[in-house]
Amino acid sequence: MSPKWLYIASGPIASEAANAVHVAHMCDALKGRGLAVTIGPPASSLRCASDSALSLYGVGRAIPIYSLWRPKIRGGGLVYRLVLRWLLHIVAADIVYGRSLQGCCIAAETGRPTVFEIHKPEWEINERNYREFQRLVAGEGFRAIVCISAALEAHLLAVFPELKGWTIVAHDAAPTLERPEAPGQVEAFVVGYFGSLHPGKGIETLLDVAPRCPWASFRIVGGDATSIQRWRESRDVPANVHFLGHRAHHDLPAMMAECHVLVAPYLEKVSVQGGGGDVARWMSPLKLFEYMAMARPIVSADLPVLREVLREDENALLAAPGDAADWARALERLRDDPELARHLGEQARADYERHHTWDARAGHILAELRRLEVIDP
Fold first, then answer.
1. Looking at residue 316, what DSSP letter applies?
2. Which residues fall within 8 angstroms of residue 264, CB to CB, at 6 or more apart?
3. Which listed residue, of 3, 136, 185, 197, carries a Cα 20 to 30 Å from 205's Cα?
4. DSSP code for 336
5. What is the span of the domain harbouring residue 229?
């Protein structure tokens, strides 16, 4: 019989947020590794989520989804606790895994073997989270913390040194994607950005770089009409910058493949969808790994946490955050040196295939949990 895993999500499944993309692909990869996975996302209504919700992200395997009702009323948290306890009973999971601090805390306190994954310092958000995190790690069922980056793991252990030996580092990943063909013949050198338009993502850098590179066409894919209009009203948008808006997740690989260069122009402070403060010190961006899968050269902001994955002149070029002149020089290098561009793209693709598919990530986490004797060999 396949081991049963319950994944407690921290947000809704049918969502444009990176959180939802991560959960969908991670659960698909775990199921592909032979586990019987059930997903428990929060919901503000009693309407059940459809198993087909995962198809939004190109996930083909059917995975049961049980919505955890949390009404937006006083006492909604108590309702959530009761519904989760019911789900823990009917699923009878061998392992509870998730990104919901409250959900994993409840599971650990009931004695269910629980593994919590963090993408930011959850305990620092407020005093309530700090207390809940303490209850989680003190829970009878607590087994391990999975950290999205080594920087986040180091920060965690500085605050909770007693967790040393019970942490795992697992960077984010990308779906298994076919190697794309080289970009077709186009009039301009295409520079592609894919992601949100939130503060810190570096849209302002691209708007400053574009006039320095009139030979390039900058495609910005992401953001809704309101956020695009906000940029148009607050900044002069050069003629070679094109805001293409939000596109369905399954359409993005083909659009990335049309680009000569893919860029991640993060600033030194980065916000994420739904708030949550600055994540620049800890992040492991999904889009970065999707870029690597495309076998295209990448230019990324030179942030310490991204150097856990990117290596200057080996699988990417790194440019100073917000420095338009430095970014323009990096793009000129790739324009003028096709062999360098090819090498960077090929090495990024090789690193992706070896370490950064969802299947590889799931395999790494399972191997580490076996090493920690959380699951059977």
1. B
2. 193, 195, 202, 285, 287, 288, 291, 298, 299, 300, 301, 306
3. 185
4. H
5. 189-356
Which parts of the chain fold into alpha helices (H)? Answer: 18-32, 76-91, 101-109, 127-138, 150-159, 203-209, 225-234, 252-257, 286-293, 324-336, 338-355, 358-371
pLDDT in tens, 336-365: 999 999 999 999 999 999 999 999 999 999
Pair (169, 155) in one structural domain? yes
CA distances to 57, 121, 142, 265 from 114, in Å: 26, 18, 5, 36
Please state, in angstroms and rounded to a whole number, the distance separating the CA atoms of residues 31 and 7.
11
The token pair at 71 is 């009404």
DSSP 40: E
Residues 81 and 209 reside in one and the same domain: no
Dihedral sign (CA 184, 286, 170, 85): negative
Give the pLDDT score at 377.
82
Same domain, 275 and 289: yes
- DSSP lists the bridge partners of residue 98 as 8, 116
pLDDT reading at 46 higher than 60: no
What's the whole-model pTM score? 0.91
d(CA 19, CA 286): 9
Region of residue 202 (left: phi > 0; alpha: psi -120 to 50; beta: else) = left
Task: Report the length, in residues, of the chain.
Answer: 377
Which pair of structure tokens corresponds to residue 168?
Answer: 């795992």
Token pair for 36 = 């019987």
Contact criterion met (CB below 8 Å) for 316 and 294: no
pLDDT tens digit string along 1-29?
Answer: 789 999 999 988 766 677 888 999 999 99
Residues 6+ apart with CB under 8 A from 207: 231, 235, 236, 237, 238, 241
Task: Give me the CATH number covering residue 283.
Answer: 3.40.50.2000
Q: What tens digit of pLDDT does each residue of 136-177 get?
A: 999 999 999 999 999 999 999 999 999 999 999 999 999 888
